[in-house]
Write a structure and sequence with these properties.
Oligomer: single chain
CATH class: Alpha Beta
Distance between the termini: 28 Å
Largest sheet: 9 strands, mixed
Order of helices and strands: EHEEHEEEEHEHEHHHH
Structural class: alpha/beta
Number of strands: 9
CATH architecture: 3-Layer(aba) Sandwich
Number of domains: 1
Number of helices: 8
Strand content: 15-25%
Shape: globular
Radius of gyration: 18 Å
CATH topology: Rossmann fold
Helix content: 25-40%
Amino acid sequence: MTSDSDTPPGASNPQAPGEIHFWTALGLEARTIRHALGMGKPPAGAETAPLHTPSGWTVRITVIGPKGIHIPDPAATRRARLVVLAGFAGGLDPALAVGDVVVDGIDPIKPVEGPWTAGRIVTQAKLVTTPSAKSLLHKQIGALAVDMESDAARRAAMLAGVPLLIVRAITDTAAEAINPAALTWIGPTGQIRAGALSLGLLRRPWLILELIRLWRSSRLAGKRLADAVQYIVVHVEEFTAIGSGN
């Protein structure tokens, strides 16, 4: 997907039907969305230049950080007609495989059709890393997937009066454990911490297998997430109609 040639990146378009705001916890997730939509890499420290779609919609991407600690204020959020919290999550439903996409948010009674499974995504304050903990959470709540940002995004979207769609691609299944040591290699925006990685592998060289598995899972989940994002942008009118009750 490319920018509307009649409207240069960053310029306002008074005829545009609205804005879609994508929120991600990690920079890696934001890069996945930018690549899926053909958006350029922003300068260091700068906000991603918006994309103007051929149908006139404006797409903006914001990295809100783990647990949503940098969610935009309500005034900025109200510019959107749809907010999409997009990224990765852990699977709780044993039926989900790596790369499967789960959506939650706008209308839990009438799921929006798309390349995904509709169901509940639950938020936890800490990463759920063991199969036993995932199984317990699935049995207690019935959620399909778990993340750390959905609750914060729900509160922010409700406060701003904007419909929210939560889109998560599974990186670890209900049966897979995540070694907590490997998680220390990843920085707060999803970048690899080279020093921590080198030291960790020196102390536990067998964890290289864990790193390879996480890398492969993230690549597959990223491809499926990109497909879902493209679908949302193309069919945005359907989502905003459902969100507004039309």
